[in-house]
């Protein structure tokens, strides 16, 4: 590990694009903001169309030799990359905390999972499937890489979601261009700089930019695949842009996850888990619990315990080692969350906790108080819309069929969970929920080898696991005629 520190130490003062394994700046630059302190962060590039063309060209040039490497050899590069990241772990975690506002422990957990993701993914393989094999001929289903891929990464988990796309793209034989959010480009740029010291030229590239960069990439004829994580509205635009050149795409979009708590749930175990998964990253997780349905028989006890638990969750920024909940990541999202909080007074909603900036003693930073809404109307904005902030509506239910219908009554379908002491009962309910990821007595349980994705307006395709690898490939059937007497159906 000492040699890695010597060979891969990074300077965190200056930030550049990585194009064809060279660091480059741009004539126009911009700055990010630390959302916990509103401190202005260092300058980062604003990539031009020429930068995009150069990166695509380099990726295309690198693709033939990269795809010819064995799976094992490509995996070796990924593991070496993970080792180099780990050698800089403390500094990268600090940088992640500054650009996202995440508390120390939250930033460290994201990086730890990201490293695990690379190392687990490096062990995965897509098996070839023999569909027919007789004396005359064989037919084998195999998967071949696409070419130059792009990962468009959101600001809430800029390292985990970026590396989670990169490792699958590279392992399956593609080259990769990483496009971070304009609100959180810093860790991505440093990881690109590190990748340039490990991977062959043009295999990994990172471009920072403004709102024009995404469309330049999604419309570029040299890009073969776009993997996008972000809002449903932007996902529709990505899909539309990809259609012009028939690019492959994976979309992991917004969610409005429902959790159903049954009357036989063990509150001492369930409340802390539900509270954690509702307010994790200040509600800025696509698979956080966004709507909580609690059986009327235990509703009052549940609410009392939930409020007590939530009041024990400390709010603070990147320098706070004891904080659980951080700020809203950027000013634009802060304004949207503030507007949604305004519904509390506009609709005279009952709050069990929070609901106003007066409930939070913060003079700087984009902080919002953890807020629990007590049994709001089903058609209120705090129920219908994905808040992407620390506001949780809790609603009563009594009839199983009715609560399933209410949980499914959304255009979103990313995740859902059921909590019960009777696992068979919980599974029966879970089987009828319309979401790509469904949990029993858990929520937001993820693993690098297990795919995830959304139904309905929450996405198309899946990331992670072998299914995620397949999304970076074209399925191909190889027919082999073993003798001249082989017959065709035609």
In words, what does this structure look like?
This protein is of the alpha/beta class and 490 residues long. The protein has 2 domains: 272 residues, 3-Layer(aba) Sandwich (Aldehyde Dehydrogenase, Chain A, domain 1), CATH 3.40.605; 183 residues, Aldehyde Dehydrogenase, Chain A, domain 2, CATH 3.40.309.10. Helices cover 37% and strands 21% of the residues. It has 16 helices and 22 strands. The strands form 6 sheets. A 7-stranded mixed β-sheet has the order 14-15-16-13-12-18-19, sandwiched between helices. A 6-stranded mixed β-sheet has the order 9-8-7-10-11-21, with helices on both faces. It has a 3-stranded antiparallel β-sheet with strand order 5-6-22, with no helix packed on it. The protein is globular and about 75 Å long.
